[in-house]
Write a structure and sequence with these properties.
Blueprint: H1 2-12, E1 19-21, E2 27-30, H2 31-34, H3 56-64, E3 88-92, E4 116-120, E5 134-135, H4 136-144, E6 150-153, E7 160-166, E8 169-174
Parallel strand pairs: 3-5
Antiparallel strand pairs: 1-2, 3-4, 4-6, 6-7, 7-8
């Protein structure tokens, strides 16, 4: 997903907004929908990204996508439900590359390589195209409940690891690449 975001940024000059909004300003589609063309799959091409994620047309397309294609979004590759709830969420905290109040990127990946790009959570209950992501408070609660929460930074080098709470603060521990 990091590569899909990098490819989106390379083509559009910036990262996608957290969600696409309709003419009234209501969120209709997640950034995950905008990066679908950058994943290695053609099955998503029939989606209409100008419509809401749960519109009649998009529901019909989503319901017809083979189960194996949803493993892009599932933390567990034993996906049982189509579409699989996504475990990949944009992080909306102080270290995020996205501004939580506007939903827009704070800058380019190359300028903010240490910024938190994505958080991986078990069982989010959020469908891949649904416009919803994760706040610092939700991450904190999941960590406190004993869940393993993973993260990916904008930069590639040492850009992934696990989230913990130390001295009352969320801490992002990078795993060193071998």
């Amino acid at each position: 997903m990091r590569l899909a975001l990098q490819n989106y940024e390379a083509e559009h000059g910036k990262l996608p907004p957290l969600c696409v909004r309709d003419s009234q300003g209501s969120p209709i589609l997640s950034w995950r929908g905008l990066v679908l063309p950058y994943l290695d799959s053609n099955v998503f091409k029939a989606l209409d990204l100008s419509q809401a994620w749960d519109s009649g047309h998009n529901r019909k397309v989503v319901d017809g996508i083979p189960l194996r294609e949803w493993t892009w979004f599932a933390r567990d590759t034993n996906v049982q439900e189509s579409p699989a709830a996504t475990h990949i969420l944009a992080y909306l905290g102080p270290e995020s590359i996205w501004d939580a109040s506007t939903g827009l990127p704070k800058g380019a990946i190359k300028d903010r390589p240490g910024a938190i790009l994505l958080i991986s959570v078990p069982e989010s209950g959020i469908q891949p195209l649904q416009p919803d992501d994760i706040t610092e408070q939700k991450v904190r609660r999941l960590v406190q409940d004993g869940n393993e929460i993973l993260f990916v930074t904008a930069g590639v080098r040492h850009g992934y690891g696990v989230v913990s709470i130390e001295d009352g603060k969320l801490t992002f521990h990078s795993w060193q690449e071998k």
